[in-house]
Amino acid sequence: MIENENEFFQLHSSITRAKSLFKERFEQPLRGVSLEDAEQRLKSGRHLVDFQKIEFPEEELRKLFEDFCSVMKGFKFHEVAEVETLKAAVEAGELNWGSLVKKTYSGDPDFLSSLGERLGVSVDLLAYLGTNLGNPFFEMYAGQLRGKVDLEDWLEGRCPLCGSEAAFARLRRDDGKRILWCQFCGTEWGYPRIKCPFCATENHKKLRYLFTEEEKRYRVYLCGECKRYIKTLDEREIPEDEKPDLSFENLKTLYLDILAEKDGYHGRDSRQGARV
Ligand SMILES: [Zn+2]
Ligand SMILES: [Zn+2]
Predict the structure, then answer these.
(1) Each residue of 138-167: b (16+ CB within 10 Å) or e?
(2) pTM of the model
(3) What spacing in Å lies between the alpha carbon of 201 and ligand 2's midpoint?
């Protein structure tokens, strides 16, 4: 979307700021998530948020989209025309932001690719907007349920709140425990270090990690069983006053994705099925 790496970080940081401001302003009740439902779902091993039930306020999503448009205007964003096409499609009632968010989050790749083809808009842009528009809402849902539902028994590699795969991990400073992180809702949860978050193998012969001498703060955990990997920040290698933001760490370490992919491992699973 933007070739220059520095500019890309600046864009990300401005979009992040727009999302925080949006959350600060947002005063409506969140619809479609109740504590009872969440507890019920957890009992049967499902993540807390029911995608069928959540309702996004369309008008608020439109405002957030407008905020993003103002941010994007300040950058050499390749897809300016595509953003306009998308906006026109929503105004004409061909699409609504709520369904774009739901389809992006529920991992429905067919929806995004056929929509992209129909409108002449890249799937990457649709996923980027869908993810960022949904972000503040999922973070608010997560905030509403955090601490109220006991996640101690959640032993899965996918997010207990929204069901997405872990996008990044950190090794906790105090005890080295592995904490997985969800890029969609910001939820963090503990997971054993000698276990693959994607296929759950505990075969230590299949699990290893790599790191570069220059930047020991990062590790890439590789699984020989499913050929997936997860990038990890080792907090014990960073100064105590540094408070890492995993969404930035994830972007800053694209060279590690390239390294792992060169070795035949892959990150995001494009075949991830719909989450309900
Ligand atoms: Zn999540
Ligand atoms: Zn695996």
Answers:
(1) bbbbbebbeeeeebeebebbbbbbbbbbbb
(2) 0.84
(3) 6
